[in-house]
Amino acid sequence: MKSIFIAVSLLLLSFNSYAAAYLGMGFGKVDYDADAISTFDDPTGLEFFIGNNFSDNLAFELGIVKFGESSDGIPPEWRLEADSLAFSLLGKSQVSETAQIFFKFGLHSWDISISEDGFGVFGEEDGTDIFYGFGANFKVSNQVGLGFRYNIYDFDGDDVTMFSFNAQIELQ
Predict the structure, then answer these.
(1) pLDDT by residue (tens digit) across 47-104?
(2) How far is Cα 112 from Cα 61, in angstroms, rounded to an integer?
């Protein structure tokens, strides 16, 4: 909880920094077992993020990711569900007047649970690990951008990936 408070405080203090603050949301395909053969399906995840630029090439973001519920499809079905609070630094590069690419690296505090139909939740775990990714943003107006992101989240040595399409609004 202390680290969440520090991250939010830094975010609020930086709104007066170099460039525009932004917020956005996205949705996309989640793969809970990116490194292994799995019978779990690939659910749709959601992400909400707020960020601010330190310069033309460096920004940070605070985000919430809902990875969605995945099922193994074999009765009685097992279900896997996870969420994450993520803090990341982004290295950005302007490719053209309207296109920008970025790479990101950060920490995420996650919760994951597994349940079985008719039995309920029988396993829960949480932790804090690294994540990293890349993406692009394309301005469609002075304040609105559309883009994509591909992130790889570590969950105690297991990777969960998410490819998402995003919309972002500049606040200043």
Answers:
(1) 999 998 888 899 999 999 999 999 888 888 889 999 999 999 999 999 999 999 999 9
(2) 22
Asked whether residue 15 carries a pLDDT value surpassing 60, the answer given is no
Q: What is the DSSP string of the chain?
A: -HHHHHHHHHHHHGGGSSS-EEEEEEEEEEETTTTS-------EEEEEEEEEESSSSEEEEEEEEEEEEEE--SSSPEEEEEEEEEEEEEEEEE-SSSEEEEEEEEEEEEEEEEEETTTEEEEEEEEEEEEEEEEEEEESSSSEEEEEEEEEEEETTEEEEEEEEEEEEE--
Extract the tokens encoding 64.
Answer: 């919430």
- CA-closest candidate to residue 144, choices 121, 111, 166, 123: 166
Residue 120 reports pLDDT greater than 70: yes
Tell me, rounded to whole angstroms, the distance of Cα 172 from its chain centroid: 23
**What is the pTM for the complete model shown?**
0.86
Q: If you count them, how many residues does the chain have? A: 172
Calculate the CA 100 to chain-centre distance. Answer: 18
Q: How far apart are the first and last CA of the chain?
A: 29
